[in-house]
Design goal:
alpha/beta, five-stranded parallel sheet, about 55% helix, about 15% strand, binds shikimate-3-phosphate
Length: about 170
C-alpha cells in the first residue's frame, strides 16, 4: 500500500479540524481541503440540505467517494474531515492510504460550549444536544483512536500549541 503524504485531521464536531487545518495550511504552506466543503460544492447543497433531502446514509456514501477521489489526486495537502467520516470501517483503510491521521481529541464540555446554538450540524438539532454529544462522543472516541496515527489533546490548548505539536510530529516522521 502506497501511503500518500497528506496530513489528515479527524475528530468530533467542534474539535477544531477546520480552524486547525486552516492555520496548519498557512504554517506549512500546504493547501487545505475540507471534505464537507468539497461535498457541498459537488452537490450544490449544504450538509443540512443533503441530510434533509438525501438522508444520512447517502451522505456517508458521498464521504467515502470523496476520500477515494482524494486518494487519486491529493498529495502534500492538509485534509480536514467531517466528524462522522471515520465511523465507516471501510474508510479506515482509505484514510491510512491518504496520509497520516491526526485525531484532535476534545472533551464533551468543550464541544457543548463551542456548539450550543449551532444550527449547521443536523446530528445535534434534537431536544437535548448536550446528551446527544455525550452519547455520540462515547461511541465514537474508541473508533477515532483506532483510526489515528497520532492523538492530539486539544481542549485546553491554544492553536499555536496544537500546530506546534503537529509540526513536530511531522518533522520527526521525516
Ligand atoms: C458530522 C460532522 C459534520 C458533518 C455532518 C456530520 C458527524 O462535520 O460532516 O454534519 O457525523 O459528526 P464537522 O465535524 O466538521 O462538524
Amino acid at each position: 500500500m502506497n501511503k500518500k503524504n497528506n496530513i489528515i485531521l479527524i475528530g468530533f464536531m467542534g474539535c477544531g479540524k477546520s480552524s486547525v487545518g486552516y492555520r496548519l495550511s498557512y504554517a506549512l504552506r500546504q493547501t487545505l481541503i475540507d471534505t464537507d466543503k468539497l461535498i457541498e460544492r459537488q452537490q450544490g447543497m449544504t450538509i443540512s440540505q443533503i441530510f434533509e433531502t438525501k438522508g444520512e446514509s447517502a451522505f456517508r456514501q458521498m464521504e467515502t467517494e470523496c476520500v477515494r477521489y482524494l486518494i487519486e489526486g491529493a498529495d502534500k495537502q492538509i485534509i480536514s474531515t467531517g466528524g462522522g467520516l471515520p465511523m465507516k470501517e471501510e474508510n479506515h483503510t482509505l484514510l491510512k492510504q491518504l496520509g497520516t491521521v491526526y485525531y484532535l481529541k476534545v472533551t464533551e464540555e468543550t464541544v457543548y460550549e463551542r456548539l450550543k446554538g449551532d444550527t449547521t450540524r443536523p446530528l445535534l438539532q434534537g431536544e437535548n444536544p448536550r446528551a446527544r454529544i455525550g452519547e455520540l462522543l462515547a461511541k465514537r472516541a474508541p473508533i477515532y483512536e483506532a483510526c489515528a496515527d497520532y492523538i492530539i489533546e486539544v481542549s485546553d490548548k491554544s492553536f499555536e500549541e496544537i500546530i506546534g505539536e503537529i509540526v513536530e510530529k511531522e518533522r520527526s516522521r521525516q
